Amino acid sequence: MIVGNAIVLQSIGVYPPVAEWTVTSGNITSVKCTGFRKLPTALCSYKTKLASIDLSECPNIEEIGDEVFYHCTALQLSSLPATIKKIGYWAFRDCGAITLSSLPPSLEKIGGDAFRNCSNITLSSLPSTVSSLTYGGSSYSLGTFYGCSKITISQIPSGVSALGQSMFYGCTSIPSMDLSTTAVSAIPSQCFYNCKAMTYVDLPSTVTSIAAQAFRNCTALKTVYCRSITPPTLANTNAFQAVDLLHIYVPVGSANAYKTATNWSSFASLIEEYNFT
After folding, report:
1. Measured between alpha carbons, how far apart are the two ends of the chain, in Å?
2. Which of 159, 130, 158 lies closest to 145, judged by CA?
3. Is residue 191 left, alpha or beta, with left meaning phi > 0 and alpha meaning psi from -120 to 50?
4. 267: left (phi over 0), alpha (psi -120 to 50) or beta
5. Is the CB of residue 267 less than 8 Å from the CB of residue 240?
6. Cβ neighbours of residue 167 closer than 8 Å, sequence gap 6 or more
7. Domain boundaries, the chain
8. pTM for this one?
9. Rounded distance, CA 165 to CA 211, Å?
């Protein structure tokens, strides 16, 4: 229904949540939400003139659903409510004007492509409570931080067990990456492609595969720590294409296995044993 210059949407329930849209010159420019625990799928998607959202009347909000702000290219947003626990896939995709510098302290799950092309967010860390960076995403939409060129995240929380294809593609300000406390088993294709500032990466003992182009064009990358005793499957030497590596450190007693393993053998002169204990 229309109330003044606002379009009010209600859903069925004892206390139905309400979204009030402000319309200016035929375009939705702001929205005020009241009573939501979860912002529903695609609530504001493709509203390219939407500049602001007011969630102050949603004290118990816990989830931003899938595609809620997809392609809201004018949206200005510098913080999220501390109560948020889940952010759906494509939730903020293409929201290039948002300027988040931190995420809610109790956040648990972030969806695939959730912040894709959010080039002005400046996250330096992820909450320790995060256990999934691929929440709700499909195999083709797992670039959670794709194109986030200003983030400086350098450690993945220990509860994370999976990364996605192109997850940190083009994150050109990441200085290093520590995965050592995670249970990640695979470094997917193009996962860290073009992370040009990354000087070292520390891979966990659980890694069993490194896909093609995983670290391609990481031009500052000099050192790889690989804690797996058994050499992970290296799909192609282009995993490190355009990378001037100096050292690949592997567990004591594993150097020969790495030096003779498929594709690792191309880097035999760089492989050294290291005591990780």
Report:
1. 64
2. 130
3. alpha
4. alpha
5. yes
6. 133, 142, 143, 144, 145, 146, 188, 191, 192
7. 175-277
8. 0.93
9. 9
3-state SS assignment for residue 225: strand
* Backbone torsions φ then ψ of 9, nearest 5 degrees: -110, 135
Q: For residue 48, what are its two tokens? A: 């390219």
The pLDDT tens digits of the residues spanning 194-248 come to 999 999 999 999 999 999 999 999 999 999 999 999 999 999 999 999 999 999 9
List Cβ neighbours of 25 (8 Å cut-off, separation of 6 or more): none
| Domain 175-277 class in CATH | alpha beta
Q: Are 271 and 264 in contact (CB under 8 A)?
A: yes
Q: What is d(CA 236, CA 259) in angstroms, rounded to the nearest whole number? A: 15
- Of 212, 186, 215, 188, the C-alpha closest to 201 is 215
Alpha helices (runs of H) in 196-254, residue ranges in sequence order? none
161: closest CA among 133, 183, 189, 190?
A: 183
Which amino acid would we find at residue 151?
Answer: I
- Tell me the average pLDDT across 20-41: 92
pLDDT (tens digit per residue) in 91-123: 999 999 999 999 999 999 999 999 999 999 999
CA distance 50 to 45: 10
| Cα distance between residue 258 and residue 277, in whole Å | 19
Q: How far apart are CA 168 and CA 12, in angstroms?
A: 39
Mean pLDDT rounded to a whole number for the chain? 93
Of 170, 221, 163, 220, the closest CA to residue 194 belongs to 170
- What DSSP line would sit under 163-217, residue for residue? --TTTTTT-TT---EE-TTS---EE-TTTTTT-TT--EEEE-TT--EE-TTTTTT
Runs of H (alpha helix) within the chain: 255-260
CA 244 to chain centroid: 26
Rounded distance, CA 235 to CA 223, Å? 19
